[in-house]
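Dock 4'-deoxy-4'-aminopyridoxal-5'-phosphate; give full complex structure.
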Amino acid sequence: MSVFWNSRVRTLVPYVPGEQPRDRQFIKLNTNENPYPPALAVIEAVHAAATERLRLYPDPSCTEFRKAAAAACDVAQNQVFAGNGSDEILAFAFAAFFEQAPAPPVLFPDITYSFYPVYAALWGIPFREVPLTADWSLNRADYLVPSGGIIFPNPNAPTGCAIPREDIIAFAEYAAQNNSVVIVDEAYSAFSTTSILPLPSGAKNILCVRTLSKAYSLAGLRAGFAVGDPALITALERIRDSFNSYTLDSIAQAAARAALNESGYYSETCARVVATRERVSSRLRALGFTVLKSSANFIFIRHPHLSGSAFFMLLRENGILVRHFAKERINEYVRVSIGTDSDMDIFLNVCTAGIG
Ligand code: PMP
């Protein structure tokens, strides 16, 4: 606390990102990074963009990146917004589509991406956390009520559970009646079989947010994009241009474009992650773990005897970093990102020994 802090800074409760250890070599299964490297063409694009042209500002509209994203999603370029990671796009979307109090609250699940309440608090947006059902799904009727908008990841985080497309369409049709927006955070959709893309025809109030951090192995680059009706995209541009016109540097734009053009390579690496996820999930179930059915590049699991924090510590002592959320309902669980097969074998060995 400092006398120089304004009242906003004093009351903020910032998001806490997963640990990025510098001191010790961990098997890092805590922040849902992709264990496989980016495509070679992406590294080449980074090198090719590192020239004397860096003295110039980047393209503020990220034209080439957006073109590639539009082609990958089979939409028009004016249906795509590019951002510095999907977190930035989500922050802009809260500012663009959700109203401050005394508006009705924005709805999101009680167990979800913990950045949502942070953005809401930052912009002074009222929200209501809707409890997931006992089987970790969204109860459709809970979202068919008047609200200030809806946001959730699909698949959800940190559970990994997918939400049926028909439910999302129902939410959006209901929300359209009071002109509110449904934001579908598809950070992990590449590991799932469902998506809200292609957007249902006539859906003007759905924004689909994607990242290159997970499926495209580019968490260190910071690139994401959103797909929606051109009017929603214009709203995001208006927020961005009231804040920072150059959110993506020229190297990131070149690399993001190159990544989106390498769909063959990435479908292969994503399929490997999915295969490893399924193998690890069944092995853990056989050991007596509770493993939620994941559609993401991580699993949410409960040790048969140990508490969530004790299991987290056991893994840490064995050089494996995972994520534990000290939060009601999920305190006994840990989230484990899917690594390479050999990393996961080491993880499984520690799990097996820990049962003993
Ligand atoms: N949405 C969800 C659900 C996430 O888990 C993450 C990763 N922390 C993000 C968005 C943000 O990803 P990025 O900013 O790297 O695109």
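Observed: DSSP finds eleven helices and twelve strands in the chain.
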